[in-house]
Each structure stands twice: as C-alpha cells, then as structure tokens.
Amino acid sequence: MRILYSAIDQTVPGTVGGSVHVRAVAEGLAALGHEVHALVSPGGEAFPQGPVRWIAMVPPLGRKELRWARRSVVARLLRDIHGDAVIERYYNFGGEGILAAAALGVRTMLEVNAPVIDYPGSPKQILDRALVIQPMRRWRERICRSADVIVTPSAAILPADTPSSKVVVLEWGADTDRFRPGAGGVLPFTRPPGTVAVFAGAFRSWHGASNLVRAMRQLNERRVSGLSAVLIGQGPEFASVKAEAAGLQNVIFAGAVPHDRMPACLAASDIGVAPFDVDAHGPLSLGFYWSPLKIFEYMAAGLPVVAPALPRIASLAAHGTEALLYDPSQPETLADALTALLDAPLRARLGAAARARAEREYSWAAHCRALDAALRRVRR
Q1: Radius of gyration of the chain (CA)
Q2: How far apart are CA 181 and CA 163, in angstroms?
Q3: Three-class SS of residue 185?
Q4: Residue 189 belongs to a domain
C-alpha cells in the first residue's frame, strides 16, 4: 500500500516519545513492504536513511494548534502519490490527514495516545463550554467519526459513542533488536561502580524524576550503599530536579541523549525506573492511559522495572515477575524497591522475564504487523 503518515507536530529525528513512536511506525510499515510517505517536522539533523520517504512539513506558524490548516496541502500530496491509506497521529487540533482522506475516499487510521475526551476541570473544557456550541469537542469527535479504524492503548480515552468494531487496542513498543542486554556503544556518562538505576525521560513534572532523587536521598540517609542513579534527558523540570539532587554524589545527570545511543545506556544499567507522578498531570485523572515507551525499552534491555503500583502499569510489567511496583501514596516504598534490587539474583530473574515479555508482546515489529492487518481489513 502507499501510505501517507501525518504527524506534522512531531520532530524526526528526535528524542521524545512521540518522535520515537513515529519513526518506529513509519520504518516498521516500510519494512513490511509498504511505500510510506511521512509528514513530520524536521529535527536538527538529516532525516534517517532508509525506505521511508520523509517529507518536511511544520504546522502553520509553527503552532500545533493550527495543524488542521494543512488539510488542503495533505490532500494534494495524497492525490500526487495516489495514496491507498492515511495514518494520522491524533492531536486535539489535527484532522488534516483524516479529513483530507475522507473527502477523497481513502481509508484512514487514527493513532490515539492522548485523551479525546476532556478530564474533569480541564481548562479546555471550561473554554469550550463558554463558547456554547463546544467547537473543540465537536471537532475532535468529527475526527474520530471520520476515521475508519482507531488504534489506541486505551479505549477509555475515546468518545463514548465510538463503535468498538473500529477500535484496535494495541500497546506501543520498543525496538527489541536494538534494545537488548549487552548492547554496545559509547556512553554519555562514566558508569559508576556497583548497581546503577536509570531514568530516561523528558523531565516533565508527571515523569516524576524528582521522586527518584528523593528516594536516593532517603537511601543515603539510611546509609544504604552500592547504588547510583543516572538520569538521562532534558526538559522543563531538569533544573529543579538537578537542584534537588544537590550534594548527592551518587546521582548523575547525563543530559539529552540521541535515541540511537539509548540502547547502550540501558545496557550499562541494572534497574529501569519509571517513577510517574500521576497527580501532576490533570488528564491522568481519567486513568493511566499511556503506553509508556520507557517501560518497554527498559524491559527490552533486560532491566527489572521499578514503577508505581497502578493497575495499568501492573498489567504491563507484573509485580514480582518483571517489576517491583511501589505504593505511590507512600514515597518511602520507592526507596524500598531500589534497596530490594541490590540483590543481584533478584535483578537477574526479573530482568530475564522482562526481556522475554518485551520480545513476546512489546516489539515495534509486532505492533506494525497489527497495524498492517488492521489497514488490510478496512481496505477490504
């Protein structure tokens, strides 16, 4: 199939989850024999080499809120390539791919990994209701109605009247060929002796990097030795988290790292920490709807996962099998989990199970095969 993939608010190449996702899906579908034309914002480097036909396209004026205004340009591209299908990465003010394709009679797939519905108290919901006719809600629902198939990790974030027959519940994933135990490469940090816990993320408040720093301080106060933490990434909370780590010699900040170098970083670590703070992000009041790439990449690298004991996370990495999950209402239990994982045999057992499950359930290759099957169904 000739597929037009519209994700123009995502940067490729890039280091954040959305960039990783878009590149993995485009390349995975191309590996299955599809001709993939991907619309993305260009990163600071050249587009990746390979079979994907990357097309630079940014939202008007660089504003994601104006993505929808690219609809006519997308329609022209779709006609030029004689496209068979359109995939669009959902955004509240998107629809440029789905609606252009619907007008041309081309089949469509919508990837949804952020809530289409508003959470209680949402500023956007308050504004929408003040406008009486709720144009933003109506626009989002129109996009969902127009899509032939919707792929999401959680159907609970879709409009209530979405037919279940067109919903494919599917987790995102990891490149299990590249993320693996023993992956080599140059490290952006000097590996400290002993056991290393790693955090990788964009340092947003709900990523909870400060929770890991606080746990490391608690361990120092308990005089627990032999554990260091490496925090990889850059973002809005970076400066405050680094300030909170002042005086902790066993906490290392590696800064932003190209995603291609992350397999080596995880392979040089012993524990993968995903200390999410769900109270810091309003939309998570709808439930933990994310399909967290960091957890899948930790698991693919053979790392035991440490994360809050939320029902959805427990379904992805089971406590005592692939992970040690702590009670987020009792902050000291994060430090307890890290202490337990100083036990090398326990780390080895959980890490091996995590790797096996990542290969079985969370590879990008498996994800793209499911997308391929769904596209073929709707074309028929």
Answers
A1: 21
A2: 41
A3: coil
A4: no
CB neighbour class for 160 (10 Å; exposed up to 12, middle 13-18, buried from 19): exposed
Predicted TM-score (pTM) of this structure: 0.91
Q: Does residue 305 fall inside a structural domain? A: yes
Domain count, the chain: 2
- Answer for the pair 308, 325: CB distance below 8 angstroms, yes or no: yes
84: domain CATH number is 3.40.50.2000
- Tell me phi and psi for residue 221, to 5 degrees: -65, -30
166 and 262 housed in the same domain: no
Q: Are residues 200 and 285 in the same domain?
A: yes
- Residues 136 and 204 reside in one and the same domain: no
User: What range defines the domain where residue 35 resides?
Assistant: 2-173+364-379
Structure tokens at 58: 């940014």
Q: Looking at the domain assignment, is residue 40 inside a domain?
A: yes
Question: pLDDT tens string for the chain (380 positions)?
Answer: 999 999 999 999 988 889 999 999 999 999 999 999 999 999 878 899 999 999 999 988 888 889 999 999 999 999 999 999 999 999 988 999 999 999 999 999 999 998 888 878 778 787 877 877 888 888 889 999 999 999 999 999 999 999 999 999 999 999 999 999 999 999 999 999 999 999 999 999 999 999 999 999 999 999 999 999 999 999 999 999 999 999 999 999 999 999 999 999 999 999 999 999 988 888 887 888 889 999 999 999 999 999 999 999 999 999 999 999 999 999 899 999 999 999 999 999 999 999 999 999 999 999 999 999 999 998 88
